[in-house]
Amino acid sequence: MIRIENLVKNFGAKRAVDGVSFAVERGEVLGFLGPNGAGKSTTMRMITGFMPPSSGRVTVGGHDVTESPLEAKRLIGYLPESAASYSDMTVRGFLNFAAELRGLRGAARRQAVGRVVELCFLQSVLRQSIDTLSKGYRQRTCLAQALIHDPEVLVMDEPTEGLDPNQKHEIRNLIRELGAKKAIVFSTHILEEVDAACTRAIIIDRGRIVANGTPDELRNLSELAGAVTLSAHGASEEKLSVLGRVESLNGAFRVYPRDKAKVSELAQAVVELVAREGWKVEGMYSERGELDEVFRRITLPDTVK
Amino acid sequence: MRIIWTIVKRELAAYFTSPVAYVFLVIFLLLTGFFTFTAGNFFERGEASLAAFFGWHPWLYLVLVPAVGMRVWAEERRSGTIELLLTMPVATWQAILAKFLASWLFLALALALTFPAIVTVNVLGSPDNGVIAAGYLGSFLLAGAYLAVSCMTSAMTRNQVVAFILSVVVCLFLILAGFNPVTDLMVRWASPAVVDTIAAFSVVTHFDGFQRGVIDSRDLLFFLSVIGFALFATGVIIRGHRSG
């Protein structure tokens, strides 16, 4: 549904987005990760047609966003950064306005507003003006606006920003449900959201894509992935180091695999070694990678590395 | 068309959900009353016309119209809703035109509420109501020209105060270019042809005809082209800061 080729955006001399390409199909939820200022919002603004790209192409449902913006925009629902909405309007007024701009009139409009009000749990605040709403309700009102025409493509800029843990949980569940029938892109810098809601994630840093894969693939980029942590009576660092690099952790040892492709062999080798030496095992874990660590390692500026 | 009307409705409603609209209307009506009857010597003139009423409009609008127009785009930019509006299936020109029309309708309402002035002259004497109608048309176009300039300056900044001041400065130029004391001053250095050319850019020059009851197509064209140009410039400015 969304296809991006070699997208570049310059702000004066600064290159905010530098040759980004990816595609999102129906049924996919793409998490867009990156530190602040990495170019996430700028990329989303180009997808939704708010900003023209300096070069490269964005097509949504086959329509080029620059050449036929209205056709492309019809397919997109967009939740802008910090859920911008007309604060002088009531929730109902705002949703009616959004529905009318999307070409929904009369009964169709009433039905659409009713549907998103139910979906985003807005019944209790319908008559309230938006500037009196709490952050969570404001976010949901803006999300309701993005869903009013049941779009095939949903683009959300930090949808869970500033919400409490319960609200975050609700929004993530909603994203996952909607993801079954739509193509969704959302940006975040909260890594747990990738696991909670995404089928695929892209990490972007200083305008470039530095990683692209399923949450598990990304996790495998972690140094920790596949390492075996052993806590055993009698174990010695010296003997374990035959199998790979060993790190001593407060009475336990962590063995890192020499070859990422042979992760399962390492666990097997450790088990065999333990049996041979007759160590008494207190605990043994095969580590999954940590997204956190991957994220930090690939997005840290070179100077800090 | 429907899209434009949807935005016009929203914008008009936005004026009336805050007290600003009512305050504006009251101040506008008080000031027109004051300028007409007190400063304009309406009764002492002894003539059945609204010359004392319309004569002040270029000056009155100088402050009041930018106050209406300053929020049009600056507020959208400040709150980020411009992103919401322009990612809807709405062409930029439709949004610009709709927002302008909404504010212009609001000014038309303010102008319409000055109807007691018409009643007064008609009770006291028998004025030429055709001249008065032309005066109202001219005043409406004058307000539109100032408003389009205000929309343009409003698009330049996210600060409404800055938008207001810029707009007053530009509108002041549009007055002074044809204001008699200024043109008298310019005649000392410049040839009459130059002075006339500069004065041709002034709203005062073109508003004069309407006040006398003459609807000249050149004057109509002048106001419509000021509006057209300023709205076009608004589009260029908005495209400019969208493309970064």
Biggest sheet descriptor of chain A: 6 strands, mixed
Rounded mean pLDDT of chain B is 90
Order of helices and strands of chain B: HHHHHHHHHHHHHHH
Judged by helices, strands and strand pairing, the structural class of chain A is alpha/beta
Poorly predicted runs of chain A are none
Structural class of chain B: mainly alpha
What characteristic shape of chain A results from the CA principal axes? elongated
Strand proportion of chain B? under 5%
Q: Rg of chain A, please? A: 24 Å
How many helices of chain B does DSSP assign?
15
| Unreliable parts of chain B | none
* Overall tally of structural domains of chain B: 1
Q: Could you please say which CATH topology of the largest domain in chain A applies here? A: Rossmann fold
Task: Report on the architecture of this protein.
- The complex is a heterodimer of chains A (about 300) and B (about 240).
- Chain A is an alpha/beta fold.
- Chain A has 2 domains: about 1-220, 3-Layer(aba) Sandwich (Rossmann fold), CATH 3.40.50.300; about 230-285.
- Chain A has 11 helices and 14 strands.
- Chain A has helices spanning about 40-45, 70-75, 90-100, 105-120, 135-145, 165-180, 190-195, 215-220, 235-240, 265-275, 290-300, and strands at about 1-10, 15-25, 30-35, 55-60, 65, 75-80, 155, 185-190, 200-205, 210-215, 230-235, 245-250, 250-255, 280-285.
- A 6-stranded mixed β-sheet of chain A has the order 6-7-8-3-9-10, with helices on both faces. In chain A, strands 2-1-4-5 form a 4-stranded antiparallel β-sheet, with helices on one face. Chain A has a 4-stranded antiparallel β-sheet with strand order 12-13-11-14, with helices on one face.
- In chain A, helix 6 links the parallel strand 7 and strand 8.
- The longest helix of chain A has 15 residues, at about 165-180.
- The model of chain A has no long low-confidence stretch (mean pLDDT about 85).
- Chain B is built from 15 helices and no strands.
- Chain B has about 240 residues and is mainly α.
- The radius of gyration of chain B is 19 Å and the shape is globular.
- Helix content of chain B is about 80%, strand content about 0%.
- Chains A and B meet through strand 1, helix 2 and helix 3 of A and helix 1 and helix 7 of B.
